[in-house]
Amino acid sequence: MAKIMNILKNIFTGYDVQDAYHQGDIALNEQHLMVIQNLKFTWLNIESGAIAAYFPNFDSVAHALKLSRNSNELRKIMSEALCAFPLWLSRSNCHAGEYLCENNQKESFLFQLTEQHIKLIHHLIWRDMVINDGIVQFYFQGYPLPMPYTDGKRPFGDRTDYHQDMIDILGGGVELDLEKLFREMDMALYVYVRNTIQ
Q1: What is the spatial distance between Cα 91 and Cα 93, in angstroms, rounded to a whole number?
Q2: Angle 115-123/72-91 helices, nearest 10 degrees?
Q3: DSSP H or E segment with residue 107
Q4: Which helix (H) or strand (E) is 181 found in, with range?
Q5: pLDDT, tens digit, for every residue of 85-125?
Q6: Judging by beta carbons within 10 Å of its beta carbon (0-12, 13-18, 19+), is residue 71 exposed, middle or buried?
Q7: What 3-state DSSP class applies to 64?
Q8: Rounded to an integer, what distance in angstroms lies between the CA atom of residue 46 and that of residue 49?
Q9: For the chain, what is the total number of helices (H) and then of strands (E)?
Q10: What is the pLDDT of residues 134-168, one digit of tens each?
Q11: Greater confidence, 37 or 131?
């Protein structure tokens, strides 16, 4: 992982990603959405668990956008998309259903995205993804782009017992395996961002 990150860091020079942090409500275009649709999601060992949105490599994004992988334009688009991602996610929607998932798996499989997953996705609390954040540097040393990641202690609300926040979000009356739902959030995010309703 460290070797990959060093390569990526060397590829992207010239554009200051800090500029993306100061743009406020970034108006997303088709290129930004292509970037979001190529995101992968992984768990970080923080408190109860945090989910990071990242790119293991930039080749697929560069190919989709028909841009050079070492261009400043690509870095700008990716930085803006990542900074805008949490707000975009809260405003987006997706149909529940069975979708192909390949998130960090050797083989693809069918994942059942439920209404419960979708409700929880809309309530995820994302942390500030400043590029020099100590958490980001610890897990992804040298990663050259902003990295949104969820709050590892309070992923859905104000409580450290996140199961109670999940109950409030999902409502009572139905017996649910809350911990299973929580541990499926990385896969739910993967299929969600690739199948959003325009």
Answers
A1: 7
A2: 110
A3: none
A4: helix 178-183
A5: 999 999 999 999 999 998 877 789 999 999 999 999 999 99
A6: middle
A7: helix
A8: 5
A9: 10, 6
A10: 666 677 777 778 889 999 999 999 888 999 999 99
A11: 37
